[in-house]
Amino acid sequence: MDVRRSLSNHAGSRRSPHEILRRLADRVTPDTTTDEPVRELEERVATLLGKPRALFFPSGTMAQQTALRVHAERTGRHAFAGHPQSHLHVWENQGYSAVHGLRFHPVGDRNALLTRDDLAAVGEPLAAVVIELPQRDIGGLLPTFEDLAAQTKWARENGAAAHCDGARLWEAQTGYDATLPEIASLFDTVYVSLYKGLEGVRGAVLAGDAETIAHAEVWRRRLGGAIVDAWPLAVIALMGMDENLPRMREFKAHAQAIARAINEDGFAHTTPEVPSTPLFHVHLPMSREEAQQAARNLAEDTGNKLFLYARSNPDPRRCSFEVSVGISALEFTPREVAELVRGLPKRI
Ligand SMILES: Cc1ncc(COP(=O)(O)O)c(C=O)c1O
Question: What is the pLDDT of residues 95-149, one digit of tens each?
């Protein structure tokens, strides 16, 4: 299938080995060493987030499980709280339990944002509270800064660490008046992804105080994550920082324009109605199977890929899909997206 354009920032065209090698070749010079790009990346993330230290990990899955393990060992507690649709719980085969012997305490409504009151009802000692910014699986909803501060304050007052699943923190920041260091200062540890809004190849960085990160480094080695020669991942992520970070507000504005066009059209609708970040969900009056078939046919016929996969709904006649606006999605006008979405039923 020859996909020319994609509404996702995981667009295959920007991820093809040829394209990645071409971009790497633009940046790597005869003086580039094997360890310097990773060091530069770690220092840059630490500075951007205003944290004393940051450490590269091959994946966010490993970075977050490590952070929780470290918080558990420090506090002597084994439970952590988070949103019922936390990535850690839904998408990682419960690695926190299988690998680290930790317990997840889901908090609050699965279709709404976590609140401070939800946390106050937990009732067991917690090693950490995990807050995902934005909450991806409910459409990229974002708590207000005040709510966020109240939740992390509650965590600390109750002896738990506050950990940020900031896979899309660069994107989430566009929903606040606060700066990245102001947001990060609410948390003890912050994980950021190198391949979502930054459109790198893979990889993650965990930031925190020097002692926590030194402890995390031990676990990274134990888990097989202390890979030397991670430089290609670091170089491509540094390029993403140069090129994509300054454009996050542009991505968000385009996401809002696409959502507006879809909502005005009336066939489908978005959550949130006005996206707070470049990520949002589109809800379709079609079954998941129909939507996936239609999207496959659309991609085959026109080279336009609307989504990676459709999400099921308790009502089997409906489904939804995620849009994450990055450089790829800028190639679509909002009206065009609304028309492509409306045209899906005709492509089954
Ligand atoms: C919110 C969130 N957290 C964590 C992760 C895990 O990242 P990785 O794929 O690097 O393991 C993802 C990946 O999609 C994510 O969306």
Answer: 999 999 999 999 999 999 999 999 999 999 999 999 999 999 999 999 999 999 9
d(CA 102, CA 8): 33
Do the domain assignments include residue 16?
Answer: no
Pocket of ligand 1 (CB under 6 A): 59-61, 87, 132, 136, 165, 167, 193, 204
Nearest to 56 by CA among 180, 226, 224: 226
Query: Which residue has its alpha carbon closest to ligand 1 atom 16?
Result: 167
Cis ω for the linkage preceding 246 (within 30 of 0) = no
Statement to judge: residues 191 and 259 lie in one domain: no
Which residue from 64, 193, 277 has its CB within 8 A of the most atoms of ligand 1, so it is best to mutate?
A: 193
Q: Under a CB-based contact definition with an 8 Å cutoff, are residues 179 and 21 in contact? A: no
- What is the residue range of 235's domain? 33-243
Do 206 and 341 lie in one domain? The reply is no
- CA of residue 196 to ligand 1 center, whole Å: 9
- 3-class secondary-structure state, position 257: helix
Q: Checking DSSP bridges between strand 269-271 and strand 204-208, what pairing results, if any?
A: unpaired
Model-wide pTM > 0.90:
yes
DSSP states along 31-86: T--SSHHHHHHHHHHHHHHT-SEEEEES-HHHHHHHHHHHHHHHHT--EEEE-TT-
